[in-house]
Amino acid sequence: QLQLVESGGGSVQPGGSLKLSCVVSGFTFDSYFMGWFRHFPGKEREGISCISSEGAVTTYADSVKGRFIISRDNAKRTLWLQMDNLRPEDTGVYFCAARDQRTIPNVQSMCAAGTGHDYRGQGTQVTVSS
Residue 71 in contact with residue 82, Cβ under 8 Å? Predict the structure, then answer.
């Protein structure tokens, strides 16, 4: 059964931390670029961070560089996003997504606006407020 299940969201104060997880099943995880995206109601989704199939190449939105770290464990079929020094503007629904690495040029393409996903999860809410 194909699934991408996110967890780890919640409410934190500014400066706090959260670690999001995405456990996947039903497809060949280590053949896919993976990424974390943020959905804004009424707006286009934003690519937060993406990672290559083997984990060697990562990309980040400018707004999160130096604060967020993406990682994956192919044996565990799990993707993570460590989020530190959170800010109110980080608030949103975060979801993980997958794209077959053979179908786009590079991992940077996956996080680019307008690039489609093969699979995605339902999302987890992150709220940063004092």
Answer: yes
Do 121 and 20 touch, CB atoms closer than 8 A? no
pLDDT at position 49 is 98
Has residue 108 got a pLDDT over 90?
Answer: yes
Identify the helix (H) or strand (E) that includes residue 109.
helix 107-111
Question: DSSP string covering 92-105, please?
Answer: EEEEEEEEETTSSS
Average pLDDT, the chain: 95
Tell me if 95 sits within 8 A of 37, measured CB to CB.
Answer: yes
Structural contact between residues 55 and 74, judged by C-beta atoms closer than 8 angstroms: yes
The residues, ordered by sequence, that sit 6+ positions from 124 with a Cβ below 8 Å of its Cβ are: 6, 7, 8, 9, 20, 93, 94, 95
pLDDT at 34 over 80: yes
Structure-token match 């800010």, residue found? 87
